[in-house]
Amino acid sequence: MTTAAKAEGAGALPTPSAKPRKSVMGTRLWVAVLFLLPALILLGALVVYPIGYSIWRSLYDADGSGFVGLDNYGDIFSNSSTLTAVRNTAIWVAVAPALVTALGLIFAVMTERVRWGTAFKLIVFMPMAISMLAAGIIFRLVYEQDPSQGAANAVAKAVHDTFVSSSVYPKARPNATASDLKASGGGSFTTTGTVRAGTPALLPLVGIAPNKLPGTPENARAASGAGVTGTVWLDFKLGGGGTKGQVDPGEKALKGVKVEAVKGGKVVASAKSGADGVFTLPASADGGQLRLPGSNFAAPYDGIDWLGPTLVTPAIIGSYVWMWAGFAMVLIAAGLAGVDRNLLEAARVDGANEWQVFRRITVPLLAPVLVVVLVTLMINVMKIFDLVYIIAPQPSQDDANVLALQLFLSSFGGGGNYGVGSAIGVILLLLVLPVMFVNLRRLRKERER
Known about the structure:
The protein is α+β, with helices and mostly antiparallel strands. The protein has 15 helices and 9 strands. The longest helix is centred in the N-terminal third of the chain and has 31 residues, at 80-110. The protein is elongated. The chain starts with a helix and ends with a helix. The model is unreliable at 3-11 and 20-25 (pLDDT under 50).
């Protein structure tokens, strides 16, 4: 070998080894398995095994001793209670997530321009700190039928009484033995005879305890004078005594009772009794019959039957919206914070008003966040159980039934049929899977961007 060849060999770089280099996963597979093993064990114990066991159990009868195949699934769709649960679950999925997302979007956008926006967000988000059980108890009280206990009906009654006057004497009725007032339909009472000027009419009523009269009633006074007049009073006093059909000392006047004069089926005059029970009609009432309209005796307005068969599901959805609107608001507000403000300003410079900016710029930019919130809430409402079980009273619980509640009732709530309960659980899983698939597909697309 020449000197030049030696020098060239000495200065050359070493030739790389022809042996392929092994990947980390290939040489240390046991490390990956070691780290994944706890998660795989938990996944199998808490997810895979329960799903597999539920599918297997749904193919057996109530006590698990006999194989029935798909009969449990057939029973689900032939049972009226389960069909009601399916219908109500569909209502929940269609209404509640959309309502919560829309409300969260409105709150998130509006609080951006409110001076105390942070405090408002805190107040709206606070219900999320309350458990479903506590929220159910709260709204069971809110929806109480008695306006003195239920906040919702207290508000409804206050609004109603503002526009419609309520009856003062709902339990009053004519004294049948001492009055010619007879029922004339619609809760009203009409005299069989006619009234004449100079002959005071006597309209005695009973059915109310003297100590239950509103306010501080005055003693009744017998009417007098030449006009068309009369007296409306409570023909009864504590301790008894007196003459029926006559105004006796100590008997109380009924103030504010409306009296109408009727001729030929038409009202020709009307008046209200005063503090002493006396009323005076114009001369046109002479020769007419006296009628006490049903508005004098109508039962007081007790509010809305929130937990009745008709409104129980919307009422419970309302409580769900109260709880989860804060959750939607916080997520949407976080997405809104990442929106490029230059785009919004550019749209305003181009002449767009606030509604156009919101509809054409803000909402499209927030679409990924809105989809996340909507999908999360759809999965959540499919499992709704606590609110329905606690808020709906027993008489209307069947009308508010949902699949998760039906699963509980079939298995543990007296039904004792674990086969049907497992079948309902499998159906719930099948209903959730498409939503999860859409969510995973969306996440994959976002990663590819």
